[in-house]
């Protein structure tokens, strides 16, 4: 598929051929869902923790004698049935990550790129370069109509451009190796540089 290439100032810079096997697939929601779920679960910290009866700070003394009170038998106040006692089988720190085959992860990225291309939310720019000034880049972004955009560059992001984009709300910049399904789907507009297109096609072959 052919797509026009533009400059950051809005001018035209020719066109580019996008591979149908990466940008022309029929998006599948089930694959996108699996990959996003894998990403979010992997990112989840899993630091939730409660105290068990061996960790609460009550005395371990038996609260009253075993027989003769007419009440139930009890040991110390750390038991789960008492207020401020230990929690029985509560959450402990763990990883929420699960495995997902590499082929499915790769396919998910292809389908995410294809989904943006099909929705008309894919823009290819000549290059992502700036003078490092947030004000000038913010004006260019506003003139292009990008409100929530992800910009994917080649192997490395231009340092001045990254610095200028850092304070612009709704604008994210990633190198091609950082391109992922969740970030692509989260933004309204996907912007890829020509170097980024080449790097993604090389990565997904």
Number of beta-strand segments:
6
Beta-strand proportion: 5-15%
| Count of runs of 4 or more consecutive helical residues | 7
H and E order: EEHHHEHEHEHEH
Terminal Cα separation, in Å?
A: 17 Å
Q: Give Rg in angstroms.
A: 27 Å
Low-confidence stretches: none
Which range best describes the helical content: under 10%, 10-25%, 25-40%, 40-55%, 55-70% or over 70%? 25-40%
Outline? elongated
Mean pLDDT: 93
Strand order of the largest sheet: 2-1-3-6-4-5
Largest sheet: 6 strands, mixed
Category from helices, strands and their pairing: alpha/beta
Structure at a glance:
The chain is α/β, with parallel strands linked by helices and 205 residues long.
Description of the molecule:
This protein has 205 residues and is an alpha/beta fold. Helix content is 34%, strand content 14%. It has helices spanning 20-23, 29-43, 102-118, 134-144, 159-165, 181-186, 194-203, and strands at residues 2-6, 12-17, 122-125, 149-152, 171-174, 189-193. Strands 2-1-3-6-4-5 form a 6-stranded mixed beta sheet. Strand 4, helix 5 (159-165) and strand 5 (171-174) form a beta-alpha-beta unit. The longest helix is centred in the middle third of the chain and has 17 residues, at 102-118. The chain is elongated. 23% of the residues are buried. The model has no long low-confidence stretch (mean pLDDT 93).
């Amino acid at each position: 598929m052919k797509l026009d290439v533009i400059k950051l100032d809005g001018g035209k810079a020719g066109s580019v051929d996008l591979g149908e096997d990466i940008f022309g697939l029929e998006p599948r929601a089930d694959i996108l869902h699996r990959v996003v779920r894998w990403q979010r679960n992997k990112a989840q910290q899993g630091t939730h923790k409660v105290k068990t009866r061996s960790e609460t700070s009550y005395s371990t003394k038996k609260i009253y004698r075993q027989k003769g009170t007419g009440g139930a038998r009890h040991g110390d106040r750390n038991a789960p049935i008492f207020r401020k006692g230990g929690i029985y089988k509560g959450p402990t720190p763990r990883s929420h990550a699960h495995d997902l085959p590499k082929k499915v992860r790769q396919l998910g990225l292809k389908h995410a790129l294809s989904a943006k291309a099909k929705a008309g939310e894919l823009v290819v720019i000549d290059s992502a370069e700036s003078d490092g000034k947030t004000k000038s880049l913010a004006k260019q972004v506003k003139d292009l109509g990008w409100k929530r955009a992800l910009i994917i560059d080649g192997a490395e992001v231009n340092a001045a451009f990254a610095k200028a984009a850092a304070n612009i709300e709704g604008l994210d910049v990633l190198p091609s190796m950082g391109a992922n399904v969740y970030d692509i789907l989260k933004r309204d507009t996907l912007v890829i540089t020509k170097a980024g297109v080449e790097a993604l096609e090389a990565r997904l072959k």
